[in-house]
Design goal:
The protein is mainly β. It is built from one helix and five strands.
Length: 63
Amino acid sequence: MKLCRIIAYIHKWDVGQSYRVPGRIYQDEQVVIFDLDRADIIKIVKKDGYRGIRSDWKTDEES
């Protein structure tokens, strides 16, 4: 958990929020690279009794 707080501090994130961070999978190397500069806050929304997650994040193809 300490590493998460260090990353949050560096990127000036609110530790009370949840974030979605886009990443790219490199299967041959078994590695995922995350673009921490593109993190978006995840908003919890309630609709028709369903509790889900919504964000304004778009994939590279949608941008």
